[in-house]
Amino acid sequence: MSLGQRISRAILQWPVSGLVNHKSLxxxxxxxxxxxxxxxxxxxxxxxxxxxxxTLQQCCEDLDLPGPxxxxxxxxxxxxxxxxxxxxxxxxxxxxxxxxxLQEFQQLLDLHKRDAGLDVxxxxxxxxWGRAPGREGEEASGWNIIxxxxxxxxxxxxxxxxxxxxxxxxxxPPLSLRQMADKHGTDQAIAHKLARVARIHFxxxxxxxxxxxxxxxxxxxxxxxxxxxxxxxxxxEAERDNISLDKAQKRAHDYMDEIASDFxxxxxxxxxxxxxxxxxxxxxxxxxxxxxxxxxLAQEGHEIVYVPCHRSHMDYLLLSYVIYHQGMVPPHIxxxxxxxFWPAGPLFRRGGAFFIRRTFKGNPLxxxxxxxxxxxxxxxxxxxxxxxxxxxxxxxxxxxxxxxxLAMTLQAMMRGLDxxxxxxxxxxxxxxxxxxxxxxxxxxxxxxxxESFLQVLGILRKLRNYGRGFVNFGEPLTLNGYxxxxxxEWRADIGRDERxxxxxxxxxxxxxxxxxxxxxxxxxxxLTLSALxxxxxxxxxLTRDELQAQLNTYLDLLxxxxxxxxxxxxxxxxxxxxxxxxxxxxxxxxxxxxxxxxSLDRYQAIxxxxxxxxxxxxxxxxxxxxxLIERCEGISRNEIVARCIDIYPLLKTELFLRYEEDExxxxxxxxxxxxxxxxxxxxxxxGHWVNLGNQMRLLxxxxxxxxxxxxxxxxxTRMLAQPRIEAEQLEADGLMMAERLGTLHxxxxxxxxxxxxxxxLIHTLRSEGYLDSGSKPDLGRFQALADNILPLLSNKIRRxxxxxxx
Length: 806
Hints:
Layout: H1 3-19, E1 23-25, H2 29-32, E2 41-47, H3 50-62, E3 72-74, E4 77-79, E5 82-86, H4 101-114, E6 121-129, H5 143-146, H6 153-163, E7 167-171, E8 175-176, H7 177-184, H8 188-210, H9 217-225, H10 228-241, H11 245-259, H12 265-282, E9 285-289, H13 291-299, E10 303-308, H14 314-325, E11 332-336, H15 344-350, E12 353-356, H16 364-380, E13 384-385, H17 404-414, E14 421-430, H18 436-443, H19 453-461, E15 468-473, E16 477-478, H20 479-486, H21 503-520, H22 526-536, E17 541-543, H23 544-560, H24 574-582, E18 588-592, E19 595-599, H25 602-631, H26 637-655, H27 664-677, E20 681-684, E21 687-690, H28 695-703, H29 706-721, H30 727-745, H31 755-767, H32 779-789, H33 795-803
Parallel strand pairs: 1-7, 2-5, 2-6, 9-15, 10-13, 10-14, 11-12, 11-13
Antiparallel strand pairs: 3-4, 6-7, 6-8, 14-15, 14-16, 17-19, 18-19, 20-21
Helix pairs in contact: 1-3, 4-8, 10-11, 10-16, 11-16, 12-14, 16-17, 22-23, 22-25, 23-24, 23-28, 25-26, 25-27, 25-28, 26-27, 26-31, 29-30, 29-32, 29-33, 30-31
């Protein structure tokens, strides 16, 4: 470091420390980026700036990493801890000679040539002083984007003063110089390549963090109205409704005004502060997983489309907050027109929401305007978010997907986007959903309460600690790659106006795959596990020891036989998880001389089915295997596999399970081995038996799938009793029988009486060949499936179902 730099550092250290509020991304680069503090680290920065370096120094101290001013000696030589690619422009005159970064890269490569054991990690560092991208039509010299340029020292001082509270220090994955030297050599050309790659990296980082300029609504409306497609739709509207072209054009303009967002970076900044306060009021914390992969996709230039599940109105706010907090651009969000009420509507609109009607039916002009608006968002490079379920889940399960927005996304890509489109499934989970009481009332028949300002105030009055929130980014799905694999001829249809024949079935498969990937990323927590156990128990009550032991059973199952690499498990043990769940005040706790008893009253038992259903899919197959062993003593491994394969298609469709049929034998083997390791079952004489010493734990595991199997049994026995019954009548009779069963046996789970689940079941039976297109049944297959399912039910449930079909 030169004398001038040392003097600057000494002078600026205290002002920078007071003015800059830095945030590192990721928050733990050592763990999330596989950064090894034991190996030498050299930082690569875009521009030489003493304020950048001082900020990085503070950040590294907080993260237990060596700072840029920490001495680094390699092979007896003192080498710089940081490399900068450029100097800031001078206040006056021409730029001085470039920095010696090529010589510094070459020095590091030469050291690797001399020492085969040396492995320096080059860590690219990008510092953002505010992330406002500017707005279309504005001059590039405004303060809204100056922080993203390479400013001179005077401008940089002003940026630190004005934007210091918005500082973001982005750590990128380290580059191993050892691997690069071994693969490409150590000559001067490699040093040039390193510098070139670094420049491209910083440019992409900038775009990924700020995104394209925000749309100017006036210019955007003008672009849309000039579109040939919309002009044609306007002419057809005028002719169809016998109105003037001006009136039809005004109608189109009004639709644009109703639909289009009015994105405001200032609101995003204010929203981040407000939402940060709100999350601290509502939740114990937020757990975010999988964001690094999405950041990488954004940096590589992908068009990102977020597809989250929909639990609560908080989803819009939570996901946008997390995306911005993770250093990415908040998306434009497809929101229901019911949310366009004052004052929420204008705020949502400035936060990126664009509004969509529930149906386009009978309004071709609206349909055309909306599609062209969405196409323009994609063409300009804005990320988009939509809820493929179409509405909030009232039961905690994923709803059957709506395919409209997904189809429009695929159509936009087919118009010739010049970059890959990637769908990112997102699992959103809560230890408490604030609307869950309302959901229960709606499922009992109450009318859906219309969204309003008073409703918002009512929610704000209830602010309290709701446990943790969870945002898990699932496995991204790149549309281009998916089509290349499943529809090889798709490129021949790019640019065509008509929809190709392959689009509808492809969209359906895509939607199901996205729902499966959302479920793959499920977050497990103490409340969901406790709900799973207590709802499986007789009278919904367990001793504390029994409940804690059951939580350990669930956790061991998920750790030893993981459902997916994307789903997350809590780090805490069963005792701490139970304590955390009890803090949410959803359980009744009594105590006698033998210890605590934890139970649910009737009302809470109904509400907690919501949280159980968030993770039911993780335990569907373990529960089915446990039920087969518990009900069919001595059952062989081959019989378990055969019965699971027979029942599995129904579970797969209903719960969006990830396994293919050919994966089941090895999965069942792993589950049997784990149940035996936990001493829940015994294997002898070629069969599997319940270990009576741990029978309670196996029974609770087996019980989780019972209500699902009971619904299947209702439909199967009804079809066998009346083979000529129509599908609609079968659905109605099944729903009626479920209500009767619930009344007689105290089954209160709302989804047990959900007509959509009966509809899904009948659709699956048809797609699996149990019913033909005319609803004529294959009675032999129906009987075989019934013979596999009915023995898994209790005698009293079987008697009620059979009595209802006599």
